[in-house]
Amino acid sequence: MSKAEKTRQFIVEKTAPIFNTKGFAGTSLSDMTTATGLTKGSIYGNFASKDEVALASFDYNLRKLRGYIQGEEDKATTIKDKLKVRTRVFSDEQLTAYPVGGCPLLNTATEADDTHPDLRKRVVDALESWKEKTMEMIAQGISNKEIAAGTNVEQVTLTLMSMIEGAIMISRTTGKKHYGRSVMEVAQQYIDSL
Fold first, then answer.
1. pLDDT digits (tens, 9 = 90+) for 91-128
2. Residue 117: which domain range?
3. How far apart, in whole angstroms, are the C-alpha atoms of residue 130 and residue 111?
4. Which residues are in the HTH tetR-type domain (predicted)?
C-alpha cells in the first residue's frame, strides 16, 4: 500500500464514525481535521471533496457491518438462525462489533433520501443487496424444507428488513433499547413461524 493509500485509509477510518454519528450535513471540516490530526490541505489533498470522504466513510462503515454479519451468519447452522443474526443487534457485546453510531444504512438513508443522491444510491444498493441475499436464504430454506413451501419470499424479506430497521430507529430515537429488543423478539418469532 502506498503512502497516499495509507493516508486515505487513515482519513476514512478516523472520519467514518463521525459521519455515521453526525451525518453528512452535521460533519464539519473541523470535525475531520480534529479526528485525523491532519490539516484541511492534507484531507483535500487526498480527497476531492467532503462528498468523497463521506462516500468512502459510508463504504467503510458498510464493510464493517457486513463483515460482522457475515461472520455471525457463517457460525449459524440453519437458515432460520442465519436470518436471526440481524435481530440480535441489541446485546451490548453485539453493538461493539457494529460501526460507531449504529446502522449506517438507517443513519444515511434518513439524511440522504432527498439531499444527497450519491449517498442515497449507496444506501439503495446496500438495501437491494441485503434483500437479494435474504431472499436467497429464504429460498434455500424452502428448498431444504426448513421454511414452509408457498412462503412469499419477497414479502417475508421486506417484512424482516422493515422490522429490523424500524426496531433500530425506534430504539435509537427514543434511547430505549427495550423497545428495539421487543420488536426483535417478535421478528425472531416471525422467523420461527416460517
1. 555 555 667 888 899 889 988 877 889 999 999 999 99
2. 3-193
3. 20
4. 5-65
